[in-house]
Amino acid sequence: MSQLSAWDHPEPLALDTAPLPEYGSGSLADLLPTLAAGMGVPGLTPSIGELTATDRACVFLVDGLGWEQLRAHPDEAPFLNSLLGTSRGATGRPLTAGYPATTATSLASVGTGLPPGAHGLPGYTVRNPATGELMNQLRWQPWTSPGPWQPYPTVFQLAHEAGVHAAQVSSPTFAQTPLTKVALSGGTFHGRLAGEERMDLAAEQLAAGDRSLVYTYYAELDGAGHRYGIASDTWRGQLMYVDRLAQRLAEQLPPRSALYVTADHGMVDIPFDEEHRIDFDTDWELRAGVALLGGEGRARHVYAVPGAENDVLTVWREVLGEQFWVASRDEAIEAGWFGPRVDERVYARLGDVLAAAHDDVLITASEREPKESALVGNHGSMTPAEQLVPLLEVRS
Which helix H or strand E contains 217, and what residues bound it? Predict the structure, then answer.
């Protein structure tokens, strides 16, 4: 038997093996349009066919509460686990977050009812074609005008215009952020620091209209996962608190209401060794021909030096193709990673090359991204642990 030569490379992962989000039928982008359409808001489609219309709906989004992680912790979250059978209209199935499975992208999908290729927040950091700089879409740095970046109305705005009582209940920190403006504005914003106060006020806001659409949010579970990992006592303690918050809200629902507990993504813990963490900043092969590295460790946007796009794609596929789905921009668009369409203004925000993790592995950047490279828990790709999120339902 002949030995492999140094020039032979294993076959890269086929792009059609990537488990695509269920855009148009079971993704986060389909949730609010389905709920608002059920309240008679014009111009919206009830895409999640399993859901039954209700006059008052509250979405409680828990940052980082993945479907697989929830199911793996019945002792820490007994109330939420008791609702698993109610998920997605009592089918017991999850939703998909959308690609990439990251907070800025998912919150924009939730609020606008559009997939990432349309709303235009397709990653943690992406290139701004107007400046050539990377833009952090979670922190909105460097600042850019929110309206042109995401010009579509939110579902809350459409609901408010149709006479539905629309409200968001969240931390006061988020009241005036550009991300809130482009993704979640419309109706009224109510800032409360304590989780219990948010749950109580969300129930009050539900009762404030004959038709009500209310959103509330909790971020600290995600923060615990990033810093300490989903195997940590800190993360489990946060999950126990989230379980109590959800039960508190469920027990206060006014008549004709439905509560939906969901999330923006799941999470995976990545070991701290060279096998699982590939450092872009010290890897000359991966750096060759690359002008900017965007995205995050498990969902990279790679921007090539003009003219080097094909070479970068070839190298990244050869080096990483067994562990990542590696695609050109046009291949990823054609495969539907960002939804059924990508708007013209969004096209150049996407990397010339995209790398989505299949295995438990990261592309870190120890020098340019020291904080992100030190995270224990990570997310972004299309694996079930990251993509699948609950849609637990309680009705009054």
Answer: strand 212-218
